[in-house]
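Consider the tokenized backbone below.
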């Protein structure tokens, strides 16, 4: 289809580009004009990271046809302010702490500008409604709302609040107690911070991964012949092309870089293609022929633990077990005034960081350099070197500005694939996950099934607990061992229980891989132990608050793992929360 001439005003200047009828505005901005301040988060118009203003109206540019801006005015974050002369919104996003990872910030700023241009003095409800299409996973919306409200107040009254200066003056010398702007904050509000997907290098290839269509199957063969012969395809790699180890893993190296003889979850990588464009790489994936022999799918830990269940891994379906024994629970339960039993289940949770995984690898002075999102560049360097069969000093990993992670970017994602392709082709290679691919490929919070039995005396003091836990770690270990260990260690929360029996295991299934997520292991068991405390309080006829006061750790308390605690803040925290609730006119538990 013939290209058409597109002329529009961009940040105050007229630009002209040739586009296909199906070209989207985001692609014109990021790829043709290299204005990468506007971000691609979901590709479906849902997250708001791609928001720009068209004739003053906020639109999601990832689904907006480029030809619709013909003759119109477009404003991106690059046109909102500049070094030394920030827009009031940019200043207040910084002063109010409304900027963290920065990936959602450009879109949020432009939505806020559109609101204030139309409604100079919006209510808090109007601010909430205006930014409801702009998702943020780091900052939380309170600071963002404060920054927008503060800007509206300053613009409306013409006066800049001196509250920060007065607070800083009272704080005295040094930084403690003062409002300190983020070191990289200015570049983030200006849209200058470079995330991995923003990087471009001359001659750069684009990579895509072919993923398993089955959750559990034997691999009988992979035919890449037709894909290799497509014009523009520079390399196609499978397990046979890995020069070093094909097994990686943060704690246990049980995960395949490419599936070789067997696939263990739907979406497991089978092959990777590097081509001159993303479109060619995607077309090449369709030409790879995979011969599967489907196997029974184990979708729950209970199925995986059943007698004669098929083995997901040769060594068995149990990743690990953990046990705790302290005191004499059996005897203590016989002496208990009240005993409560219940079973709790938590679900798999997606991290939902707004920035999908991305990275670029290239060869510099005989060194493989990988720019990528990361929560562990040293671990990633070691894994890449082992996969490439290179000494550590021949691999360099550079963490790009990372758009949210929450534990989900601890594990390898694009790193080894772009590194392998750069090693193979000698050219820079870039890979960016789609939102759908990110959800399939990334780790999740572990689902837990927890059965609790807890006993207390007449005064509400805990005397015994018997607990079993089963965690679904998915197809590979990832952070499973650490997650289960933390869960077992903290199974009774911040409460003194002198007699304890805990049996726990993490189990392989054919589900997506579960790994690190904020507080890994602890949020799951908190559902259980806090639920049990409420149940016990109800049975005993005392308030949930009083139940906790009688059982929380104090200095000198001994934890369930036998550790004597020397510094304990839970009591002060609890009372501060009660005081704050009372101050706000609420009702304490």
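A designed sequence for it:
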């Amino acid at each position: 289809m013939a290209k058409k001439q597109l002329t529009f005003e961009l940040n105050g200047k007229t630009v002209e580009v040739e586009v296909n009828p199906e070209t989207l505005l985001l692609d014109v901005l990021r790829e043709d004009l290299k204005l990468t301040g506007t971000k691609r988060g979901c590709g479906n118009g849902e997250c708001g990271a791609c928001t720009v203003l068209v004739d003053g109206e906020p639109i999601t540019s990832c689904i907006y046809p480029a030809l619709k801006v013909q003759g119109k005015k477009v404003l991106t974050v690059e046109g909102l302010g500049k070094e030394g002369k920030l827009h009031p919104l940019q200043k207040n996003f910084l002063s109010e702490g409304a900027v963290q990872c920065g990936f959602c910030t450009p879109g949020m700023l432009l939505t806020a500008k559109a609101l204030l241009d139309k409604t100079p003095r919006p209510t808090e409800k109007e601010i909430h409604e205006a930014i409801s299409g702009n998702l943020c996973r780091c900052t939380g919306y309170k600071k963002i709302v404060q920054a927008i409200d503060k800007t509206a107040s300053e613009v409306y009254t013409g006066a800049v609040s001196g509250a920060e200066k007065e607070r800083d003056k009272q704080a005295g010398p040094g930084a403690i107690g003062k409002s300190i702007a983020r070191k990289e904050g200015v570049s983030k509000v200006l849209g200058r911070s470079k995330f991995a997907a923003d990087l471009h290098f001359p001659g750069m290839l684009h990579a895509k991964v072919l993923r398993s269509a089955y959750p559990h199957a034997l691999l009988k063969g992979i035919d890449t012949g037709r894909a290799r012969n497509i014009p523009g395809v520079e390399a196609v790699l499978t397990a046979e092309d890995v020069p070093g180890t094909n097994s990686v893993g943060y704690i246990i190296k049980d995960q395949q870089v490419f599936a070789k003889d067997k696939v263990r979850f739907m979406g497991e990588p089978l092959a990777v293609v590097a081509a001159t464009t993303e479109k060619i790489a995607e077309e090449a994936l369709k030409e790879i022929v995979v011969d599967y022999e489907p196997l029974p799918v184990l979708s729950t830990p209970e199925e995986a633990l059943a007698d004669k269940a098929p083995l997901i891994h040769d060594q068995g379906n149990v990743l690990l077990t953990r046990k705790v024994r302290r005191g004499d629970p059996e005897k203590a339960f016989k002496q208990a005034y009240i005993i409560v039993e219940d079973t709790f289940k938590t679900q798999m949770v997606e991290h939902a960081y707004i920035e999908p995984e991305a990275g670029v690898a290239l060869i510099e002075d005989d060194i493989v350099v990988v720019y990528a999102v990361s929560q562990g560049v040293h671990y990633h360097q070691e894994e890449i070197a082992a996969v490439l069969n290179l000494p550590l000093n021949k691999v360099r990993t550079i963490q790009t500005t990372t758009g949210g992670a929450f534990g989900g970017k601890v594990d390898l994602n694009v790193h080894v694939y772009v590194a392998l392709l750069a090693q193979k082709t000698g050219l820079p290679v870039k890979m960016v996950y789609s939102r759908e691919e990110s959800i399939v490929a990334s780790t999740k919070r572990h689902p837990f099934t927890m059965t609790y039995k807890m006993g207390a005396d007449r005064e509400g003091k805990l005397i015994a607990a018997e607990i079993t836990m089963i965690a679904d770690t998915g197809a590979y270990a990832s952070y499973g061992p650490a997650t289960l260990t933390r869960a077992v260690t903290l199974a009774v929360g911040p409460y003194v229980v002198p007699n304890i029996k805990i049996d726990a295991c993490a189990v392989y299934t054919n589900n997506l891989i579960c790994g690190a997520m904020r507080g890994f292991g602890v949020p799951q068991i908190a559902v259980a132990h806090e639920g049990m405390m409420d149940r016990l309080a109800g049975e005993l006829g005392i308030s949930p608050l009083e139940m906790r006061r009688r059982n929380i750790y104090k200095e000198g308390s001994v934890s369930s793992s036998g550790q004597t605690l020397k510094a304990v803040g839970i009591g002060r925290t609890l009372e501060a929360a009660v005081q704050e609730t009372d101050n706000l006119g609420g009702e304490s538990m």
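DSSP finds 18 helices and 22 strands in the chain.
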